[in-house]
Design a protein that fits this description.
By secondary structure, this protein is mostly helical. Helix content is 79%, strand content 0%. The protein contains 18 helices and no strands.
């Protein structure tokens, strides 16, 4: 079996699972793909157990084990997924909520790192599991950012108020970059390659994030100016592809946040100048192309997320600890969103914003990709299993129950005589 045949097989699974879900199950797309990936992994386990000499099964298993999930997510998919998400955002609404989004993406992530890190460290000591505080903080850094793909895939299924939708979207767009920089700094401390300077770390996060945003917006403005000079959909679609890939590559080369740079380039297309540049027949092609990219890559990514369980070590004696880790991450999310939820509750008359912001903070493939980059050792195996447990719970449980929760909040608001657009 060649690599091309494996990719063809994965896309066939995506197509079949999508059809079955659309026809019979009607689950959120991310949940359906994750389940399909898990079932595929279970089938491979079964082939290995009951038919160990079956060559095709062994070849598939070897190829799946050989998938470079880190490079696939952070190197190939991330730029396209972030750009596809960013072009769907209303720039004017984003600017209206810029302060809440920027502070939540920065202070919310850093606060969550501390809460999750110390909480997991204490829980590990309670359970008799060896985990030092620096490595616990590393886990906090990689799991604290909400995942753009998971969040966008979930909130498009429900009707939330414009302000809460924008806060969840905007946070997910920008906090990946903050989390990646913080994660890199804490890994250096944990491995002895650096030392922790809180002020210096925060400044580094701000510089990389702000520099990436400015670079992305500058390149986005250049592309929009050039695209405004013509109405040739093939040329302009190719320019957006070059913009997404080139912005990410240049930012990474300059040691800036590639994730935030791509977001900065993409969000400009949701503004007046961006819309003006692609008006005419180009608009339908550009929006259609990036919508397809978003849907197809989302499906493939969540399928791979399910299949990747093959690479994750799980041990029976750690199950209680993994459950505690999941609970701590969820609790930390509610703790850090409380200031913003309070503001939206009293200043914007939102109903139950703590529930929406807390339960809607989903985690996904980027966290798992970061965990897979950790150096070999007992900490890596433990953090990898914790990360997968949190991500699987987030996508399957939170993603599946978010729509009923939003509906319950809406019905409760109506019954209570409160007029809220949820």
């Amino acid at each position: 079996m060649t690599l091309f045949q494996l990719v063809a097989g994965l896309m066939a699974v995506v197509a079949l699972a999508s059809w079955l879900n659309a026809m019979y199950f009607r689950l959120p797309h991310a949940v359906a793909m994750l389940i399909a990936g898990l079932l595929m992994a279970l089938a491979l386990f079964g082939l290995q157990s009951y038919l160990p000499n079956f060559p095709i099964g062994q070849q598939i298993t070897n190829y799946v084990n050989g998938i470079d999930f880190v490079t696939t997510v952070t190197g190939y998919m991330l730029a396209f997924l972030l750009f596809a998400g960013a072009v769907q955002v209303d720039l004017e609404a984003l600017q209206e909520h810029w302060f809440s989004i920027s502070t939540l993406a920065l202070l919310g992530v850093l606060g969550s790192v501390v809460v999750v890190g110390y909480g997991v460290w204490v829980a590990a000591r309670f359970c008799g599991i060896p985990l030092t505080l620096p490595w616990a903080l590393v886990f906090g850094a990689l799991i604290s950012p909400t995942d753009l793909v998971a969040v966008f895939a979930t909130i498009r299924q429900v009707k939330l108020s414009k302000s809460l939708t924008m806060l969840l979207q905007g946070e997910a767009l920008f906090n990946d970059g903050v989390g990646i920089v913080t994660f890199t700094a804490l890994v250096a401390v944990s491995t002895g390659a650096g030392h922790l300077e809180p002020v210096e770390t925060v400044l580094e996060v701000i510089v990389e994030a702000a520099g990436g945003l400015l670079l992305g917006m500058m390149l986005g403005k250049i592309a929009i100016y050039l695209m405004g000079k013509l109405d040739e959909f093939a040329v302009e679609v190719s320019m957006t592809i070059a913009l997404a890939m080139g912005t990410f590559a240049i930012a990474e080369e300059l040691n800036l946040s590639g994730a935030i740079a791509v977001v900065g380039a993409g969000i400009l297309f949701g503004g007046k100048r961006g819309k003006e540049a692609i008006k005419g027949q180009t608009e339908a092609y550009v929006i259609g192309f990036w919508t397809l990219v978003d849907e197809i890559l989302n499906a493939l990514l969540f399928l791979l997320l399910g299949v990747e369980v093959i690479a994750v070590p799980f041990f029976i004696h750690q199950l209680w600890f993994l459950a505690l880790a999941v609970a701590l991450v969820v609790a930390a999310r509610f703790i850090v969103v409380l200031p913003w939820a309070t503001f939206y509750r009293f200043r914007r008359n939102e109903r139950a914003p703590s529930l929406i912001l807390g339960w809607g903070g989903l985690h996904g493939a980027v966290s798992l990709a970061l965990a897979l980059t950790l150096p070999s050792g007992p900490e890596r195996m433990l953090i990898l299993s914790m990360t997968y447990a949190v991500v699987a719970f987030s996508v399957a449980v939170q993603g599946l129950t978010f729509m009923p929760l939003a509906k319950w909040v809406s019905d409760h608001a109506v019954k209570g005589g409160v007029s809220v657009d949820l």
